[in-house]
Amino acid sequence: MGNRFFAAIGGDAGRRDAVRQAARSDPCWQIALDLPECLVLVERGASRVALADGGLVIGPLFAIGRPGPLDLLSPSTVASLRASGGAGLTHGYWGGYVAIVVDGGQDHASLVRAPFGELPCFYAPSSEGWVAGSDVAMLERFGGFRPRLDWPALGDFLCAPRVRGAATCLAGLRELRGGDQIRFGIGEPVVTTLWSPWTFADSARALADGKEAARRLQGEIVAAVAARGATITRGVLMLSGGLDSSIIAASAATRGQDLHCANVSTDDAAGDERRYARAVCARLGLPLAERYFELDGVDLAHAAAAKLPRPASRAFEYEARRQAHRVAETAGADAVLSGGGGDNIFCSLQSVLPLLDCRAALDDGREYRRVAREIADLCDTSRWTVRRKAWLRSWQRRAPPLDTDTGFLSADAAARAQAASRHPWLAPPAEALPGKAAHVALLIGPQYLTEDSDPCAERRFLYPLLAQPVVELCLRIPTWLWFDRGCNRAVARHAFEAILPEEVAWRRSKGSPDAFLVALYESRRRQIRSLLLEGNLAAHGLLDCDALAAYLDDARPARGSGHVRILRLVDAEAWSRCWPG
After folding, report:
1. What is the distance, to the nearest Å, from the Cα of residue 120 to the centroid of all Cα atoms in its chain?
2. Same domain, 35 and 167
3. Distance CA 305, CA 486 (A)
4. In a domain, 425, yes or no
5. Helices (DSSP H) in 144-287: which residue ranges?
6. Which of 107, 247, 565, 567 is deepest in the core (most CB within 10 A)?
């Protein structure tokens, strides 16, 4: 069951008549809302909650503190949501929803997307009105949208691939980001940010007791995994054996959920984490399927993100997912789960900034010394070095660094990098602590994990750790509490140490698929050279072809991170061949 949707907002009545006729002639679609201001189609069987006769919520919707998805809201709640254009959903609810609310008296319609919600929402102008939908195919079929590549936007994306704004890489198509509301009425639509991490990162809302923070974190994660589990029949968890995916396994086992696990490893020791995954499954009594990354499973000429308006998926990630989907097919599972984003929300910093936060917030020399010791152990350095770096850093006031990568881009494309990487979360309030600013900056990356989902996929791909209540709680935990026993992410470790094997709960090493990436690059070097130097990106002036040729023609083995960057450019090249322009 999918949650794809299309909305025609205002505009030509003839266009809406044509949409109605198309929907009525196809049993896969049904009309969910039919008002003069807005016509909405949904996939038959989609999750939805009606807002009386003035709107609906599409996709899974959960009330904070209550188990299971909602299928009904009280009349008073509906009235409140309609009055706010759906804004109230971002406060008392969470999920993977898009809400559409129509105010006939004001002749406008509002759309709200869940923070970190996996149901996309794109919009474009059309016939004196607007069209919105879950995917480009819906906008093409019902809205008359004609996709064309926006080459400057693609260059911006390649400069800052982990930073998302409203712009896509298709001309005229924009995206409503998670936690935002858009109002369509007279004139241009107005976008308002409803949810910001800084609301919860405020020092006034901090959870200062580490034990209480761990207890509450375990409760929120177990509840989020259970809520997501209630929307599927059976799930397959991509269990690396690292902390984050193991926490999801532990949470599911706590509630007796039907979960199978899949571990995908490389033939290199750094990418082989099977012993940790086995230990987790043995402790929890969960079935484990072991798979390997396969070079033959990667087709560099095929875009993993072919249906998306950005080249957001990577070829090697596609191979890991392909293996997980094979396990899901065998197990009869209808969803794949991942621990992606855990490093980010659990404050996986290797920095002295949390020590500065501790000194600024507490008058406690003993705690300051403890945190200095833990950071020193984590970074394998001396306490004196940590305290000296903290003292030097305390004299500097600077924003978190921009997350940009201009490697192998042309000078013109690289010149746009700073503008392309701007993000509202990177502008902290004046009173924000530096470590908390770094923690908030970490959350920018996971946005793309959930919000770049493909609603046309055969199985849903879910990230339970990025549930809104979990993220909000993590933001309230002071940064220095995340360090203990020479590890970061310590609050999460304490929360699940009684359930997980100790070698997993307090594991300090991390696996890496880099050996597979090197093998992929080395085995396809000639194909990569042809794809990039004779392809669309080069023809449109986005690449530094001289630098690329020099790197690709170097007979020495791959070194540094250049091969990783080149593989991302290959993904973008393959994606560009899926669209006109």
Report:
1. 11
2. yes
3. 39
4. no
5. 151-159, 198-201, 210-229, 243-254, 274-284
6. 247
Q: Which residue segment(s) compose the domain that 337 sits in? A: 200-345+443-505
User: Are residues 152 and 172 both part of a single domain?
Assistant: yes
Asked if 59 and 117 count as a contact pair (C-beta separation under 8 A), the reply is yes
Q: Round to whole Å and give the CA distance between 489 and 494.
A: 9
Displacement of CA 107 from its chain's centroid (Å): 34
Point out the domain boundary residue: 480, 505, 530.
505
Residue type for position 283 = R
pLDDT grade for 543, boundaries at 50, 70 and 90: very high
| Both tokens assigned to 217 | 């974190």
Q: What is the pLDDT of residues 396-431, one digit of tens each?
A: 877 666 678 999 999 999 987 766 667 889 889 999
DSSP result, 97-147:
-EEEEEETTTTEEEEEE-TT-SS--EEEEETTEEEEESSHHHHHHHH----
Burial of residue 401 (number of CB atoms within 10 Å: 0-12, 13-18, 19+)? exposed
Give me the number of domains the chain comprises. 3
- The residue behind tokens 């920018």 is 444
Query: ∠299-300-302 over CA atoms, to 5°?
Result: 70
CATH number of the domain within which 187 lies: 3.60.20.10
What's the rounded Cα separation, in Å, for the pair 487 and 497? 13
pLDDT confidence tier of residue 377, bands split at 50, 70 and 90: very high
Give, in degrees to the nearest 5, the angle at Cα 352 between 351 and 355: 135
Q: Are the C-beta atoms of 370 and 496 separated by less than 8 Å?
A: no
DSSP state of 463: -
Q: Which two tokens stand for residue 348?
A: 């996986």
What's the start-to-end Cα distance of the chain, in Å? 33
Same domain, 149 and 242: no
pTM confidence score: 0.96
Distance CA 525, CA 554 (A): 10
The answer on 214 and 183 residing in a single domain is: no
* CA atoms lying within 13 Å on the CB side of residue 553: 8
Residue 23 and residue 80 in one domain: yes
How many CA atoms within 13 Å lie on the side-chain side of 87? Answer: 12
179, 194, 209 - which closes a domain: 194
User: Three-state SS for 329?
Assistant: helix
How many CA atoms are closer than 13 Å to the CA of 246, on its beta-carbon side?
Answer: 33
Half-sphere CA count of 440, side-chain side, radius 13 A: 23
Residue whose tokens read 């042809």:
530
Give 111-153 pLDDT, tens digit per residue: 999 999 999 999 999 977 999 999 999 999 999 999 999 999 9
Transcribe 482-542 into DSSP letters: G-BTTBSSHHHHHHHTTTS-HHHHT-------HHHHHHHHHHTHHHHHHHHHTSHHHHTT-
Q: How far is CA 30 from CA 5, 19, 39, 60, in A?
A: 10, 11, 11, 18
Q: What is the CA angle 191-192-194, rounded to 5?
A: 140
The Cα–Cα gap between 482 and 4 comes to: 39
Strand arrangement of the beta sheet that strand 460-462 belongs to: 288-292, 259-265, 235-238, 335-337, 460-462
